[in-house]
Specification:
The protein is built from twelve helices and no strands. By secondary structure, the chain is mostly helical. It has a domain at 4-102 and 130-228.
Length: 284
Amino acid sequence: MQRALVDATPMAFVVVRLALISVAFVIFSRSARMGTTLLFRAKTSAERLFRRDILVLGVSFGLGYFLQTAGLLTTTTSKSAFLTSTAVVWTPIISYLVGREKITGKLAAAVIVTLAGVFFMTQPYHANGITVGDLLTLGCAIMFGVYIVWIDRAVLHAKAVTGSEHAATMMITSTQMVAASLLLVIFLPVVEVPRIVLTPYCIGALLFTALIGTGATAYLQARYQNIVSPATAAVIYMIEPVTAMLIAELFLTEQIGFLELLGGLLIITGVIIAQAKKRMKVEG
């Protein structure tokens, strides 16, 4: 995405990215077509609950991706990934506020360890400090925290409409992207003068982020996240910035120092701590 932003403005890139995967879902999935219909013509109480959930997911999903993409204009790839990963902090807080989950001592320890990792990775005490891109990416993390918490609720309501877990997952995955696309298109002319040049880099980034980074991962998240709690899921997602750091080192000009490596190790440790609870529960 960072390389593609040379050829496209942030919101235009996100709109095309979401539109591509939305069209693909609607063409190939009957459940996706049903979900899109319910977005505009919900009749029963269950359908209206589903539509409400989709609007919440669409706003948090679309705004989160836009803030992340816009942030990449003034921050680095690895720093963006680790700031996005602070969703591990916002998720249990949001989940607690909506009455979904208690913050246990083990989970709190996992959050503290992962936060320490984020601190060492971003090193905000440096002379250049925190940039506008960092703040935008932090807003992205809050939006993703809302999304992670709400996805479990949406799956339950979607299953009440369809009666099938797979169909419910497809409905949520596709319809939230339709909602996010429409939302961003409405605000696109206000936020920026859209520009997109279809260079090989831009086309490759659009196809990968639409089909794999958005479509496949959103389906897997909706389908399987309910196996763990929202807060534990957020800690698992902390593996993403470690991967981004390594890719940035291999393919971009970013250099990884000792503190960055220490931060990555702490984040992986936080993931292990969070998952220890699940393993002990299964064994018991």
